[in-house]
Amino acid sequence: MNIDRRNLGQLCEWLKSVGYVYVGHGRHRIVFKRPRSKFVLKLPLNDNGVSDNWHEAVRGSVAHLNPDRRIARCRTVAGCLLLMEHVQEADLALADLPGWVGYVDCWQVGLTASGRLVAYDFGLL
Questions:
Q1: Which of 14, 33, 56, 65 is deepest in the core (most CB within 10 A)?
Q2: How far apart are the two ends of the chain, measured CA to CA in Å?
Q3: What is the pTM of this model?
Q4: Count of structural domains, the chain
Q5: Checking DSSP bridges between strand 74-77 and strand 81-85, what pairing results, if any?
Q6: pLDDT per residue over 33-62, tens digit each?
Q7: In a domain, 124, yes or no
Q8: CB 79 within 8 A of CB 97
Q9: Where are the alpha helices (DSSP H) in 31-102?
Q10: CATH code, domain carrying 92
């Protein structure tokens, strides 16, 4: 899938115009959140971002079936966009983190609104 940079820019501007706020970005995706929303929207910047969104959607869509639920719940919308539950970065000392966090790229974990510690970035690339 080719990401059209012009359309992506227009989508970002439209999201801002309807109240979404820029949260951050990585190599493959940009993230927006609407104030007071329980979810973030991850937009792919390239094909790797599309792959990451699909991978996270597959894993996150069944997160509720796992009693440990170590990943944020999420699903795809409009084909390749990812809607993920909002996760607040965890301000925990390394010694206080469970062992599984070491398997998450750059320890990208945080707390959900209900207080669960989950991975919020677990794409393939």
A1: 56
A2: 16
A3: 0.87
A4: 1
A5: antiparallel
A6: 999 999 999 999 999 999 999 999 988 777
A7: no
A8: no
A9: 47-61
A10: 3.30.200
